[in-house]
TrEMBL record:
The keyword Acetylation does not apply. This is Cyclase family protein. Keywords: Signal. It comes from the Bacteria.
Length: 331
């Protein structure tokens, strides 16, 4: 009995050491990526854009219809306030009736005047509403994409590398993968993980062609709750799996991705060591920025699967994200 106990314990110890070694080896391989576009690169896979490809895409437009893929910004909108980040706030700084005293512009106050004056302001986390994550948002082992470090490149005024102001206008062929339409539901259930097998099935069923340099948008149907049920939107977090992400990036060569949910990937993550492994993989390892909270309902209703995508991020210097208003024009 004693011998058996010692033998079992020895095996347990050996297995523990083996597991620790495997985890250590895995951690060592998960490093921030080095850009194939050179040591000065700050935009990663967006380098795949070209003037000739843009010209080719614009030449394929046969309709004047434009789909707005951006959400509205409003007080109380869903956001990352659960993590302690500031909620979207809007307030008036000037009103026609409120500028009677101290009316420096001489245009407010008196409602009988020819011209009245209204001014307002907003405050928000940069990852609010439809936005794109910059490459400095996530890092690995003290480095972000292309080996940049916070010690060398992060100040109280933000990053001087890979900041949101470096993100160019994003133009490319967009492809919509409509998972709820394939499954015959309005919205995917809470925490549903879209597997690689299912992504491939949807692509085949919806006759989609995904090429290198494309922009892939994934619909979960979650936007059904965005404007009228904040609690459901925040608690229901379906998203794409790591396996599917890797296939789209490494096998299909997509330029960037987007989704109508809060995090692109499913939450909560099954990876207990990394709350958002997809973010780390895309941003830090692959240099692939992506777009969250994309409004895809009108596009899905019209069954538009292929389109010219145009996205214009705000040029916020040093920021880890930028609000944007993407457009889709059917091809």
């Amino acid at each position: 009995m004693y011998t058996f106990y010692r033998l079992g314990r020895k095996k347990t110890v050996l297995l523990t050491f083996a597991l620790a070694a495997t985890l250590h080896a895995t951690a060592q391989t998960e490093q921030a990526g080095t850009s194939p576009w050179g040591p000065a690169d700050e935009i990663g896979t967006l380098n795949m854009m070209s003037d000739s490809n843009n010209l080719s895409l614009f030449a394929k437009i046969r309709t004047g219809k434009v789909y707005d893929l951006g959400v509205e910004y409003f007080t109380g909108m869903p956001g990352f306030t659960e993590l302690g980040d500031p909620a979207y706030q809007y307030w008036l700084t000037h009103t026609p009736r409120g500028t009677v005293v101290g009316n420096h512009t001489k245009q407010g106050g008196d409602m009988n005047r020819k011209v009245s004056y209204t001014g307002d302001a907003i405050s928000m986390y940069t990852h609010t509403g439809t936005h794109i994550d910059a490459l400095n948002h996530f890092g690995l082992h003290g480095k972000i994409w292309n080996g940049y470090t916070p010690d060398e490149h992060l100040s109280d005024r933000g990053w001087d590398k890979t900041g949101a102001e470096k993100i160019p206008p994003i133009i490319g062929k967009g492809v919509l993968i409509d998972v709820p339409a394939y499954k015959g539901v309005e919205v995917l259930p809470g925490n549903y993980v879209i597997s690689l097998e299912e992504i491939q099935q949807v692509i085949k069923a919806q006759q989609l062609q995904i090429n290198k340099g494309d922009i892939v948008l994934i619909r979960t149907g979650l936007m059904k709750y965005f404007y009228n049920d904040r609690e459901k939107f925040m608690q229901n977090s379906p998203g794409i799996s790591m396996e599917a992400l890797k296939w789209l990036v490494e096998e299909k060569g997509v330029m960037t991705l987007g989704a109508d949910n809060l995090s692109l990937e499913a939450l909560p993550s099954k990876d207990k060591s990394n709350w958002l492994p997809g973010h780390t993989y895309l941003l830090a390892q692959k240099g692939s920025m992506f777009i969250e909270l994309v409004y895809l309902e009108d596009l899905a209703k019209a069954k538009v699967r292929n389109f010219l995508f145009v996205g214009l991020p705000l040029k916020i210097r040093g920021a880890s994200a930028a609000p944007m208003r993407p457009l889709a024009i059917p091809l």
